[in-house]
Amino acid sequence: MRFLKKKTISEILTKNWKYSSTNPPRNKKIKEILLTEQSGFCAYSEVYIRPIDSCDVEHFDERLKNTSEDNYYNWYAVSHFFNSKKTNRKIKNFIPMLSPSFENISQKIKYEDSLFQPKEENDSETKNLIGFIGMNVPELVEYRNKFIAQKVRDRDDLNLSQDEFIFWLESNPENLSFISALESELGLSLRIPD
After folding, report:
1. Which of 6, 31, 80, 159 measures 20 to 30 Å from 153, CA to CA?
2. Tally of CB atoms within 10 A around 149
3. DSSP state, residue 48
4. Could you report the per-residue pLDDT of 66-98, keeping only the tens digit for each?
5. pTM of the predicted structure, to 2 decimals
């Protein structure tokens, strides 16, 4: 889950910006910066957010919203659709939980059998993070599986070698939606273009 990582230096941090319902222009700028830092991808679903898609600033821990503790490390740019699926999940029901900005999160989570799972079976903190974010909600699993199947058909229809296929995928960020699942399912190592 590469889009959960936070930058060590962010314009949001250097300017000490706060998210506030009384400052919509600032909130919009925060959202733009978060989305840029996430290379245009939803932090929760790994879907590429196109300019025509709705995007939200997600306050990961809703208990911090509108408090002095709400800051950059609690904010993520997320697809509005997938964010709306999280509204019924309250963080208190998922504690203890792995921090979404944990430095080596990819060492804690694996993608297998169409689902994100903790690498260690008894890792309840990682399991709770996966559940809280909604990485395996049925709509997302179905969409992710269809997307990957379409990329396999694209590769076969275009009759591309593995190197050509990787180049083709990396040439358009929309092709890289669900990048963790794509890499796992197709045995690839993909790079997000700058």
Report:
1. 80
2. 11
3. B
4. 899 999 999 999 999 888 877 678 899 999 999
5. 0.93
